[in-house]
Amino acid sequence: MSRLLQALFGRLPIGWLQLTHNRTRFAAALAGVAFANVLVFVQLGIMNAMGTATLKPYTFFQADLMISAGDANALSEGGNVARQWLLQAMADPDVADGVGLFVGNVPWDRGDKDISLTTFGVDPAKPGFMVPDIAADLGLLEVQDAALLDRLARGIGKEEAAAIRPQTPLSFETQGRTVTAYASFTGGGGFGGDGYMLVSDQTFLSLFPARTSTAPDHILLALRPGAAPEAVIARLRALISDPSLRIRSFAEAGQEDLRYQQTRRPTGIIFGFGVLIGVLVGLVIVYQVLSTDVADHLREYATFKAMGYGPRFFLGIVLEEALVLGLFGFVPGLIVGTTILTVMGKITTLPLAMTPAMAIGVFLGTLLFSSLSGTIATRRLAAADPADLF
Amino acid sequence: MDPDTLVDVRGLNHWFGSGEARKQALFEVSFSLTRGSFTALMGPSGSGKTTVLTLVGCLRAVQDGSVRLLDHELNGATEAGLVALRQRLGFIFQGHNLHESLTATQNVMMGVQVRRGVPDPLARQAASHALGLVGLADRAGYLPANLSGGQKQRVAVARALVGNPALVLADEPTAALDKDSAAEVVDLLKRMGRARGTTTLLVTHDNRILDRADRILTLQDGRIARDEAPRG
């Protein structure tokens, strides 16, 4: 390593030699940087999982536009939309089809624990609004109290989920009714529920007697091929007399939901602060290590100053140390962070995973903030007055 | 200035502190050092020896008077100019000040690499050669912690001389050494200085080494009290 750095810098790798001279302190410093990395990885992993989980239900549907209530910041939040606006929207020449989407949570007493399923009520006669995998089984929902069940839902065993077929359905009691799952689809536990369930709009209204068919949670619209979504949205805004309604593309609705979860919901803000705290902890640890190191070698630095070494040389040494700490601290941080996210993902069934983007981002961030700490630590070098050596 | 003169100090005054605490440390100090000379600077504590050393060594700004070093006037010189001049000097400190994480060779290499553009193999070769000259070829890979006091000071001498400096400034280099080691270090300094034409200004309290100097300057209360050749 020493030879590699020597070739890289074209001078003695003093930073590396200084850091590795006291191996115990070097190991402690690396552990500190790795700890900060783990903090950031875990928080970022949770934030990413929240993003993936938020967007997951949007992947069940195929639609071009979505009409929601003004306060519907998320798919399962906010008020209802009057069905009359669906009929109004269908009057637009570029709107090919439309459907009401009902959303609610149902509990399932599993004996050892209760789980909560985010349930979507859809029109089984309109498979075009579902992704092909789900659309293929949508006809099964024509039967009253039939359901498609999330095979990755938290609290449902893999074997139990895999056995769900029309020949071997799974029945359970919820909301005072017996619901029978005839097929399954891929969802996964999220932050708002343990998994998902799809039922017909009629079954949904049976499960939620207080809801009416005239007021779905959202309206999904499919446009004719070649239609310009922005132009249709503008026309619908003029056509629909309720200005509080949110009319946007389906993709934009997902992104708005994501931004809402990350920036306005307490969980998103907390995880965001978690990342910030991890970065600050890393910054403080690297600064502390480097400033202590500078203080410990003040006399040597003063000697180098006396010999005619300039500020760039000292900045180079401290930055070299910062980069060594950042690089060598990152590797164990990545290993531990990946392990923790994998274990947490298995326990919670949240989509927690180390992604290449996360790893690269944290790596670059570690180098950046280590360098920043190093630059701040060089201020202590001003105390190294060579005249004091005599 | 005589072309043989390397350092020319004229009417040098220096103060420390400010306001009522301002205290004059040097009073009209004048002397010159010729190339290749070996001069001991003596005097009691507080007499101004170290101040003279730091001013001639470009480690402090000259406040009043003139210090010409290597044909450069230090009074009014910029910080960058002082740093550039320091690269042409060799320093030996009382505490040797070797870098604890660097081997003897690496410590000596620092005396060469201060000049940009010196390739690493060349610096290593020069350092090995310098260590050989001070009799430490077999200790080249040792860290300072594994060297004796005398050996450390010899490494410091090698570091100061490896870049062929025009002037070596040494501050009590023998203070922490026993008699034999002290004599060895001073002889080494003098021998190598003479071989390379290096001028040496050595601050010392150590009477054991005075007879080895070409000239002894004695400072008293910030003034040159005596300028003489050693007796005997």
Automatic annotation (TrEMBL), chain A:
It is found in: Cell membrane. Keywords: Cell membrane, Membrane, Transmembrane, Transmembrane helix, Transport. GO terms for cellular component: plasma membrane. InterPro entries: ABC-4/HrtB_transporter (IPR051125), ABC3_permease_C (IPR003838), DevC (IPR005891). It is a multi-pass membrane protein. The chain crosses the membrane at residues 26-46, 269-290, 322-343, 350-372. This is FtsX-like permease family protein. It comes from Tabrizicola oligotrophica.
TrEMBL record, chain B:
SUPFAM superfamilies: P-loop containing nucleoside triphosphate hydrolases. GO terms for molecular function: ATP binding; ATP hydrolysis activity; transmembrane transporter activity. The keyword ATP-binding applies. Residues 9-232 form the ABC transporter domain. Keywords: ATP-binding, Nucleotide-binding, Transport. GO terms for cellular component: plasma membrane. InterPro entries: AAA+_ATPase (IPR003593), ABC_transporter-like_ATP-bd (IPR003439), ABC_transporter-like_CS (IPR017871), ABC_transpr_LolD-like (IPR015854), MacB-like_ATP-bd (IPR017911), P-loop_NTPase (IPR027417). It comes from the Bacteria. CDD domains: ABC_MJ0796_LolCDE_FtsE. PANTHER family: ABC TRANSPORTER, IMPORT ATP-BINDING PROTEIN. This is ATP-binding cassette domain-containing protein. It comes from Tabrizicola oligotrophica.
